[in-house]
């Protein structure tokens, strides 16, 4: 069992839930949710609220209690506290199969503990999984947040060879035919489906280890298609909340990064302006910023956590239909770029808006801007974060629809990033910086950001001066190499690593200079933030950095490496190291009067200006709808093939479940796709070696 303390989950989430009254168009019931409770007075009303707030509305909620004289409490809960017809309180003599079975009218049941809360999308995710994946013989369960001990649990496979798995029994979703097994806690001959997200929150964590004899479907599922992965156009019918101005935001994930923070700020602003926000994520990601997004979303769906990719297109179509989506904001989902032609065919009047942050010729020969260009005829509005990217798309990517492409600087919240209101709370780091000049590296520890280059630079600076230190704030894949380098060259006295932070303003205040030495960027948020905190920037000449770092705001250093070939090249030129070193020395000698740099940001790069511009364009697109000419909309077959091409060339295998029970057959199928294996088998048969091998094999048997 693993406690995932590196994931970020709010343990206060269910202390006081606001009840969201729903207007239901019908009394259809797909699920029956039930609780078994001995004393109604012990029932946490927040548990009831978490059930009634589900985004999927077609259910009944049965509360089974032992025979009780507390009639007043029963009537109050049913008729006054919530006034929701879906609640029914039923008195029974025993909580056994025969006593309960006759009360269930639906095919699918949800067992919930009296002290466990449901994430608001849990029923909806189960509904789609059941209808798309046809898993009538399996039990669905999720990761668990233990609110009492402040722990997170998502360990699933205990022993793969013995098929031992850990299941969390606080909330289970299953077919009625399995009721007897569930009530008897007899799980060893049942199949399971594990939704890999925190759908269960509890103050009384419980689990059990079993043998998954009937198999486990554990998400994320591998994308190794042995079938045609085209959409089925399967539309489901159920109650859903209709919103006046609903926006669907489709993004890769919710990580800690500049593009993700931009997405969060835009979504927060649009929510405050009265829009309904639905978010779909399409890449596997741990819980870093998911709950930050959920705070402003009507619903958040990470498709990798509950649905096979073959059904994603149909899921997105259903979300658009059921929530009356008025606009799609494409926030750089690779999958969605390949789905856009099919979505445009299905919804020709639905406008699509996107924001592009940076080109990356080291990844898929251009990154997201290249994908955008491929389907530009279907996109109504494109914003780029700088003029450099707009020019690159036109000159090197053959983007021809220039009218729809506009530059819109991200900017910064200048009220938040104000040195006058920031206090230093990290006293240990403050002591580390005392009496020193401070360089700040606020970034993901990923190789395109070149943290190893920075370490080489600090090693050189340490050889010459003893009054300069560096603070590195972040986390990422390169962290292991960073620690090894620091230990190898004894740099602990000049470099301090700070874990990933939700608020890094105090480190800007401690710093004298911010350094950005990346191989690829658009314009980093850290550039805007640093200047707003009145701290100059030393930056690589990548993306549109020189558009902001100018007129005395810092120094721009020419690029010496190419991301296409130097991502893992740690042999940095002496000339480049000296260029950065000299720039740092020069800026440390400069004096920046209070608010000199900050005032430039306030005048030219306000985040509010960016947000207002996006809202204005969204309003216009919703009112006018998509104006893309019908003759540009491709036929459905072409759109489907474009998506299938992506599915077939973007196959992923997750070694996390029992997806291939017959491993020999799996390897045989996998090898048969290789030309060299087919040739080898052909030669073996021509030489009759296969018969000899079989004789030897069966002789040993």
Can you describe this structure in just a few lines?
By secondary structure, this protein is α/β, with parallel strands linked by helices.
Based on Cα principal axes, name the global outline.
globular
Strand line-up across the major sheet: 16-15-14-17-18-19-20
Distance between the termini: 40 Å
How many strands, which pairing sense, and closed or not: the largest β-sheet?
7 strands, parallel
Low-confidence stretches: 1-5
**Helix content bin:** 25-40%
The whole-number mean of residue pLDDT values reads 90
Structural class: alpha/beta
Count up the helices.
Answer: 25
Instruction: Give me the count of strands.
Output: 26
The portion of residues forming beta strands comes to 15-25%
> Over the alpha carbons, how many angstroms does the gyration radius reach?
29 Å
Give a structural overview.
α9 runs antiparallel to α22 and α13 packs across α19. It contains 25 helices and 26 strands. It has 701 residues and is of the alpha/beta class. The chain has a 7-stranded parallel beta sheet, sandwiched between helices. Strands 23-22-21-24-25-26 form a 6-stranded parallel beta sheet, sandwiched between helices. Strands 3-2-1-4-10 form a 5-stranded mixed beta sheet. It starts with 30 loop residues before the first strand and ends with a helix. A hairpin with a 4-residue loop joins β8 (157-159) and β9 (164-168).
Helix and strand layout, with pairings?
Elements: E1 31-37, H1 45-52, E2 59-66, H2 71-81, E3 87-92, H3 97-101, E4 108-112, E5 116-118, H4 122-133, E6 138-146, E7 151-153, E8 157-159, E9 164-168, E10 171-175, H5 179-183, E11 191-202, E12 207-211, E13 216-218, E14 246-251, H6 258-272, E15 276-281, H7 290-294, E16 299-302, H8 312-322, E17 325-330, H9 334-346, E18 352-356, H10 368-374, E19 381-384, H11 387-396, E20 405-407, H12 427-433, E21 437-442, H13 451-464, E22 468-473, H14 479-488, E23 495-498, H15 505-510, E24 513-516, H16 525-532, E25 537-540, H17 545-548, E26 554-557, H18 563-566, H19 574-589, H20 596-604, H21 607-624, H22 636-649, H23 663-672, H24 675-686, H25 689-700
Parallel strand pairs: 1-2, 1-4, 2-3, 6-11, 11-13, 14-15, 14-17, 15-16, 17-18, 18-19, 19-20, 21-22, 21-24, 22-23, 24-25, 25-26
Antiparallel strand pairs: 4-10, 5-11, 6-7, 8-9, 9-12
């Amino acid at each position: 069992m693993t406690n995932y303390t590196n994931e970020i989950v709010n343990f206060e989430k269910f202390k006081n839930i606001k009840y969201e009254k729903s207007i239901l168009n019908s009394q259809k019931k797909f699920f029956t949710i039930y609780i078994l409770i001995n004393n109604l007075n012990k029932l946490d009303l927040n548990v009831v609220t978490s059930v009634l707030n589900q985004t999927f509305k077609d259910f009944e909620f049965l509360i089974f209690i032992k025979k009780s004289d507390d009639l007043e409490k029963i009537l109050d809960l049913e008729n006054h506290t919530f006034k929701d017809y879906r609640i029914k309180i039923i008195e029974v003599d025993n909580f056994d199969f025969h006593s309960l079975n006759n009360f269930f009218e639906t095919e699918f049941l949800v067992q919930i503990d009296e002290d466990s809360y449901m994430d608001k999308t849990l029923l909806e995710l189960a509904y789609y999984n059941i209808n798309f994946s046809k898993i009538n013989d399996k039990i669905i369960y999720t990761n668990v947040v233990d609110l009492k001990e402040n722990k997170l649990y998502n360990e699933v496979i205990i022993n793969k060879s013995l098929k031992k798995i850990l299941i969390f029994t606080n909330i289970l979703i299953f077919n009625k035919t399995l009721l007897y097994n569930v009530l008897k806690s007899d799980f060893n001959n049942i199949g399971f489906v594990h939704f890999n997200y925190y759908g269960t929150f509890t103050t009384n964590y419980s689990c059990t280890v079993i043998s998954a004899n009937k198999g486990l479907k554990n998400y994320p599922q591998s994308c190794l298609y042995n079938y045609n992965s085209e959409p089925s156009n399967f539309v489901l019918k159920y109650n859903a909340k209709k919103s006046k101005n609903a926006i669907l935001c489709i993004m890769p994930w919710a990580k800690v990064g500049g593009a993700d923070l931009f997405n969060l700020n835009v979504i927060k602003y649009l929510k405050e302006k009265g829009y309904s926000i639905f978010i779909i994520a399409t890449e596997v990601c741990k819980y870093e910023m998911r709950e930050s997004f959920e705070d402003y979303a009507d619903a958040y769906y990470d498709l990798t956590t509950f649905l096979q990719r073959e059904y994603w297109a149909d899921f997105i179509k259903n979300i658009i239909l059921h929530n009356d989506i008025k606009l799609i904001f494409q926030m750089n989902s690779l999958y969605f770029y390949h789905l856009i032609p099919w979505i445009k065919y299905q919804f020709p009047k639905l406008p699509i808006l996107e924001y592009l942050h940076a080109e990356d010729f080291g990844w898929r020969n251009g990154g997201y801007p290249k994908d955008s260009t491929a389907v530009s005829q279907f996109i109504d509005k494109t914003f780029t974060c700088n003029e450099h990217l707009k020019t690159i798309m036109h000159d090197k990517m053959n983007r021809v629809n220039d009218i729809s492409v506009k530059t819109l600087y991200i900017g910064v919240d200048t009220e938040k990033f104000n040195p006058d209101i920031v206090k230093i709370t990290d006293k240990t780091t403050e002591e580390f910086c005392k009496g020193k000049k401070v360089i700040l590296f606020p970034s993901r520890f990923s190789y395109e950001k070149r943290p190893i280059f920075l370490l080489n630079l600090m090693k050189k600076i340490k050889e010459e001066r003893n009054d300069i230190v560096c603070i590195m704030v972040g986390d990422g894949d390169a962290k292991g190499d960073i620690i090894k380098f620091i230990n190898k060259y004894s740099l602990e006295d000049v470099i301090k690593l700070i874990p990933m932070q939700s608020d890094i303003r105090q480190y800007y205040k401690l710093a004298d200079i911010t350094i950005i030495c990346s191989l690829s960027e658009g314009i980093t948020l850290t550039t805007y933030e640093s200047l707003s905190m009145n701290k100059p920037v030393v930056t690589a000449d990548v993306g549109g950095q020189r558009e902001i770092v100018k007129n005395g705001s810092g120094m721009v250093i020419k690029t010496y490496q190419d991301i296409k070939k130097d991502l893992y090249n740690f042999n940095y030129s002496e000339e480049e190291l000296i260029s950065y070193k000299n720039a740092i020395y020069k800026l440390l000698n400069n004096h920046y009067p209070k608010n000199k740099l900050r005032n430039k940001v306030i005048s030219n790069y306000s985040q509010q200006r960016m947000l207002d511009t996006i809202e204005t364009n969204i309003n216009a697109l919703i009112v006018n709808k998509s104006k893309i000419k019908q003759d540009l909309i491709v036929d459905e077959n072409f759109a489907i093939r474009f998506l299938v091409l992506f599915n077939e060339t973007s196959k992923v295998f997750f070694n996390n479940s029992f997806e291939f029970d017959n491993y020999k057959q799996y390897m045989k199928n996998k090898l048969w796709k290789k030309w060299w294996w087919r040739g080898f088998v052909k030669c073996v048969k021509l030489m009759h070696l296969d018969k000899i091998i079989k004789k030897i094999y069966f002789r040993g048997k």
